[in-house]
Amino acid sequence: MRKILILFSALLLSGAVSGQQGYDCLLKARALKESGKTDNAIDILSAELQNNKDSRLFIERAEAYAIKRDYSNAIADYNAANSISHESAEYGLAKVYAMKGDAATSLYHLEMNLKSPFKKSEKDIMLDPVFSKIENRPEWRQFWKNEWFSVFDKSIAEIEYYLSAGKNNEAASILSELKKNYPGSESVSYADALLNLSAGKYGEAVKSLSDLLTINPDNEKYLRTLAKAQTGASNPAGASVTYSKLISMEIPDADLLLLRAECYKKTGETSRAISDIAEYLSYYPENKIALSLAGKMEAASGNNLKALEYFSKNLKLHPNDPECYVDRANSYFLSKSWEWAIKDYSMSLDLAPGNSDVWLNKGIALVNTGKIDDACHDFKQSSALGNKKATDYISRYCIK
Mean per-residue pLDDT for 248-276? Predict the structure, then answer.
């Protein structure tokens, strides 16, 4: 009995490790594809697929093959994914056959997708550029004579469109009609939460979404919207829990790590934030936002040398970005390296002269080097740009 339990535990552990490795591979492959390293993405996916037959890995590799216009291998991988997770790759097959110019086969697979649990929205399909090759074909026009999306579906999509365009009144009008005709509908409740979120009624949005998640606890769309509402409601601790849930579901989106890191930053959980940013940078080592956040978090933890390392790398990668100069200047400022701070603030102002805070900080640094006249010039520039803090410095150093 003991041996059976040990074997069972070993199998469970092996499965967990395999799952984590597959998720990590997905994130790496996606990052490589986005940076144009498609062959590298295919290589690491192929290596992982030797021992881990995960449908998501097949789909990811199929997409990489499609980018290379290797349609035969893309189709083979999509079919492999379908054999593991029924109908999960129908939309991918529709895209590949559209790229090949085979309208009939593309639309066959698109129909399969629209009848499946993986159904794409009308907006996603219409905005997908891969279908441009067949959208003027008679088969395409005939296909869309069918009502693949109900009036209800179209109304929900219309609400989402109006909210994305900032037209809350128009969205509210459509939602009001839907509430009359479809009381208690889950989609209507979600649309109501979206409207509350857009209107800044974060508490009401959180309540609606929490209720929806009691019914459907693993709904990615609900969880993402809940995290946004919690952030808006100044509840970063709650948002970090929600982002942790999404990450535990192995949603292949590395941006979730950055979003959670921002939450940890607000709750003062510096080491957790640094850990998330470091993981993100393992996938996107040249990302400007991540490098900036990494530097700020290292500075907050008291490791100014490490912070300067991140800021300097960011400047090397983005030499014409004024905010990158500000980041490093602020780090020099905190360490009282005044001359270095002045140089970076000056470079930032050459690129973006309208930043009142930079004028103020440069002035303070100049005061600390004894250059009062130059500092007064900067304080006056800051004041002219509307920075009220500059007035105190002008009174203290510039009025004789």
Answer: 96
Q: Which of 22, 67, 18 is nearest to 46 (CA)?
A: 22
Whose structure tokens read 């080592």? 285
Query: How far apart (Å, rounded) are the C-alpha atoms in residues 281 and 316?
Result: 16
End-to-end CA distance of the chain: 90
Q: Residue 101: CB partners within 8 Å, gap ≥ 6?
A: 133, 134
- 131 near 157, Cβ under 8 Å? no
Share of the chain above pLDDT 90, in %: 92
**Mean pLDDT across the stretch 259-265?**
97
Residues 6+ apart with CB under 8 A from 39: 68
* Encoded tokens for 152: 């209800």
Give percent of the chain above pLDDT 70.
95
> Residue 63 has which token pair?
């997409």
Q: Cα–Cα distance between 344 and 334 in angstroms, integer? A: 13
CA-CA distance, 314 to 295, in Å (whole number)? 9
Question: Do 122 and 143 touch, CB atoms closer than 8 A?
Answer: no
Mean pLDDT of 231-252: 97
DSSP 8-state class, residue 133: G
Joined together, the tokens standing for residue 328 give: 């490093």
Structural domains in the chain?
A: 320-400 (1.25.40.10)
CA atoms within 13 A on the CB side of 239: 26
Q: Are 82 and 89 in contact (CB under 8 A)?
A: yes
3 state SS of 376? helix
CA atoms in the 13 A half-sphere facing the CB of 213 = 21
Backbone torsion region of residue 149, taken as left when φ is above 0, otherwise alpha when ψ lies between -120 and 50, otherwise beta:
beta
pTM over 0.70, yes/no:
yes
Length of the chain, in residues? 400
Helices 304-317 and 322-334: crossing angle in degrees, nearest 10, is 160
SS3 content of the chain, % helix, strand, coil (to 5): 75, 0, 25
Own/partner pairs, 28-32, CB within 8 angstroms, 24+ separation: 28/283, 29/60, 29/61, 29/64, 30/60, 30/252, 30/254, 30/283, 31/254, 31/283, 31/284
Encoding tokens for residue 285?
């080592």
